[in-house]
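> run fold DUF4235 domain-containing protein
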Amino acid sequence: MASSSKDNNSKVYSAFSLAAAIGAAAVAKKGLNSSWRAATGKNPPANPADPDVGLSEAIMWAALSGTLIGVARMLATRRAAHYYARSTGHLPPQLQKDNQDASKAPAPQS
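> ok
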């Protein structure tokens, strides 16, 4: 019975985390689009891979959008994990430590 409860909690966390990440990405993209228009006076590139988009503009858009949307998704997912931990008293199973000890990791090759 406890395993079923954990599975259900894990599914609830996964759904909540996904919804939070998608919402955060949408908000970040909307803010990024507005900021891009304000800074450049034109719309952001719809497809940076399009050869009609200047290379420097495509690179700048890809770097900014990838970074900001990634950070927004990560922050939303962390917030969801924090809420889950406060509600259940433990981290979601996907985020629980797996007893890995960095001191026992193989030394980097030189």
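Residues 2-93 form one domain.
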